Amino acid sequence: MEGEHSAVTLESAALVNEAYLRLIELRRIQWQDRAHVLAISARMMRRILVEHARKRQAQKRGGLARRVSLAEADHAALGCDVDLVELDTALRDLAAFDERKTLVIELRFFGGLSVAEAATALGVSEETVLRDWRLARAWLFARLKGPPDAT
After folding, report:
1. Are 83 and 64 in contact, with CB atoms under 8 Å apart?
2. CA count, 13 A, side-chain hemisphere, 71
């Protein structure tokens, strides 16, 4: 969240605290290792951010949700402003035919993991993570690219 616009109402500390509170309530999970904790944490942070975006959207009397630049976040570098709710929908569509690419986006973008950490969490090579990262970003860019502004 470091690179996000200053109007963001959900701060990094609040996100981490909320994720922690939700994680400690998960009693049925048998934590395997650090990579497993990071992967689950990344998924939890994605859910929290999407829930937050949906709440903000609902509060705006049907207006547009706040846009978050993935390029500014210095993780996905899609080069366009993206609505987190739209991103979540696009990630669900991507997961329908390639779950691993979705996991790579979750781990790197939402979880902030490095290529090496994501590779360890997924049990694949760093080259595979980089390839999935590039392909998933390209797919998301094409999926989320809106019509050009009429201004």
Report:
1. yes
2. 5
Quick one: which of 94, 103, 98, 106 has its CA closest to 49? 106
Spans of the chain below 70 pLDDT? 1-10, 59-82, 146-151
User: How many angstroms separate the CA atoms of 139 and 88, rounded?
Assistant: 14
Please list, in sequence order, all residues whose beta carbon lies within 8 angstroms of the beta carbon of residue 13, skipping any fewer than 6 positions away.
Answer: none
Angle between helices 34-59 and 12-24 (to 10 degrees): 120
Domain boundaries, the chain: 12-144
The contacts of residue 97 (CB under 8 Å, 6+ apart) are none
Confidence at residue 17, expressed as pLDDT on a 0 to 100 scale? 83
CA 71 to centroid of chain Cα atoms: 13
Query: Tokens 């929290």, residue?
Result: 48
